[in-house]
C-alpha cells in the first residue's frame, strides 16, 4: 500500500464512491452526493402538482415507524390515572375520602392549648400554622414536625385567621386527628379507687365545655360522659380549656342513660344537681366514686335523668339569680369533692 493513501496519522483512509445510478435513485446531487428527495417521492410530487396527498401527509417521519420508542398519544383514561401521592394537581381525589378525613379531623388553636396538645399527643398533629412571633416558643414543636415530615407554615395574622376559622387564634393553629370516646367498660377497667366522672346532658356550648374541662383538670376529674365526644375537641372548647383538654377523656355509652346505668352497676354513686331541691353542698358527704350529672343552664336535667340519681345536690346562695352557669357550678362542686376526697 502506498503512503499517499494514508492520512497524517498514518491510518489508511478508505473512501466509498456511490454510483451515479444509485445517486439518482436516492434523488441526490451526483456531484456532492447530498440533498434531494427519493425519486419515487419526487415523481409523486410531480404528479400531484407539488402537493402531498392525504396519505403522505399522515405518514410519520422516515424511520419513526421502525423505532421501538415511538410515542403514541391517547385520549385521557380515567381508570388508568396514576396516584401521585397527594401532590396537588396530579392525584386522583376521592370526594368521599375527603369528607371522611374532615369528619376525623378538627382544628385547635391558642398557645396554651397547642403547647399542651404537643406535649401530650404530638402524633395527632396533621398540619400546623404559626405566626412568626410565636415560633421561638414552639421551637421543639417545629423540630418535631420537621423530623416527622409534618407540614407546617409560618404565615401572617390574616392567613392564620383563615386557616383556624377565627381571629382569636393566639398565633398558632393545629389540624389534628380527633380522639374517639372511650367505652364505659374500658374506663372502668383502668379507674382508681377514687374517681369522679362528670356526665353532661345536652351541654354543647364550646365555651362552657372548655371551662368545665379546665375545672376537671384542676380538681382531678378525668372522665366526661357525653353523647358526642367530638364536642370536647372543638377549637373554641380546647382553647377555653387552656390546656385542660389534654387531661380529660371523653366517655361514650350506647346511650346517656345506659352509660349512667353501667357506672351504677360498677359501684359509682349517681349524683344529680338542682337549683331548688337537694342536699345543700355544704352539708353533703360526697362519695369517693361518683358520677356528677349536670344539664343545660336554662333547662337543667331532664326528669328521666334526674330520677336516675342516688343523691341530689344544690348550691346555696342569695337567690338573686335563678342559677349558676354550668361551668361555674361544675367548678364549685368539684372543689368540694376534691376537698373531701383528695
From TrEMBL:
Record-linked Pfam families: SpoU_methylase, SpoU_sub_bind
Keyword ATP-binding included in the entry's annotation: no
First-level EC class: transferase
Annotated keywords: Methyltransferase, Transferase
Annotated stretches, region: Disordered: 1-97
RNA 2-O ribose methyltransferase substrate binding domain location: 107-182
EC number: 2.1.1.-
Domain of life: Bacteria
Biased segments, Basic and acidic residues type: 40-58, 75-84
Record GO terms (molecular function): methyltransferase activity
GO-annotated biological processes: methylation
PANTHER family per the UniProt record, alphabetical: 23S RRNA (GUANOSINE-2'-O-)-METHYLTRANSFERASE RLMB, TRNA_RRNA METHYLTRANSFERASE
Protein's UniProt name: tRNA/rRNA methyltransferase
Native species: Pantoea osteomyelitidis
Amino acid at each position: 500500500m502506498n503512503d499517499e493513501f494514508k492520512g497524517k496519522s498514518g491510518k489508511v483512509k478508505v473512501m466509498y464512491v456511490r454510483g451515479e445510478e444509485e445517486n439518482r435513485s436516492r434523488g441526490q446531487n451526483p456531484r456532492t452526493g447530498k440533498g434531494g428527495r427519493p425519486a419515487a417521492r419526487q415523481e409523486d410530487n410531480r404528479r400531484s402538482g407539488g402537493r402531498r396527498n392525504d396519505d403522505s401527509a399522515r405518514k410519520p417521519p422516515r424511520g419513526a415507524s421502525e423505532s421501538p420508542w415511538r410515542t403514541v398519544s391517547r385520549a385521557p383514561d380515567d381508570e388508568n390515572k396514576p396516584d401521585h401521592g397527594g401532590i396537588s394537581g396530579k392525584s386522583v381525589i376521592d370526594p368521599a375520602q375527603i369528607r371522611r378525613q374532615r369528619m376525623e379531623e378538627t382544628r385547635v388553636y391558642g398557645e396554651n392549648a397547642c403547647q399542651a396538645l404537643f406535649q401530650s399527643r404530638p402524633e395527632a398533629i396533621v398540619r400546623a400554622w404559626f405566626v412568626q412571633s410565636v415560633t421561638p416558643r414552639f421551637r421543639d414543636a417545629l423540630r418535631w414536625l420537621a423530623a416527622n415530615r409534618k407540614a407546617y407554615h409560618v404565615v401572617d395574622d390574616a392567613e392564620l385567621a383563615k386557616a383556624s376559622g377565627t381571629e382569636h387564634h393566639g398565633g398558632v393553629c393545629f389540624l389534628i386527628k380527633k380522639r374517639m370516646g372511650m367505652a364505659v367498660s374500658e374506663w372502668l377497667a383502668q379507674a382508681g379507687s377514687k374517681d369522679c366522672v362528670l356526665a353532661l346532658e345536652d351541654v354543647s356550648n364550646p365555651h362552657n365545655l372548655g371551662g368545665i374541662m379546665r375545672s376537671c383538670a384542676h380538681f382531678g376529674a378525668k372522665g366526661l360522659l357525653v353523647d358526642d365526644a367530638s364536642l370536647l375537641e372543638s377549637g373554641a372548647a380546647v382553647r377555653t380549656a387552656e390546656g385542660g383538654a389534654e387531661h380529660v377523656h371523653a366517655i361514650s355509652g350506647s346511650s346517656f342513660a345506659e352509660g349512667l346505668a353501667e357506672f351504677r352497676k360498677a359501684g359509682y354513686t349517681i349524683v344529680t344537681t338542682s337549683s331548688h331541691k337537694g342536699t345543700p353542698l355544704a352539708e353533703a358527704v360526697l362519695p369517693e366514686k361518683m358520677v356528677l350529672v349536670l344539664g343545660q343552664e336554662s333547662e337543667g336535667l331532664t326528669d328521666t335523668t334526674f330520677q336516675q340519681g342516688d343523691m341530689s345536690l344544690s348550691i346555696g346562695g342569695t337567690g338573686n339569680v335563678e342559677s349558676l352557669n354550668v361551668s361555674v357550678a361544675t367548678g364549685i362542686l368539684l372543689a368540694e369533692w376534691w376537698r373531701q376526697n383528695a
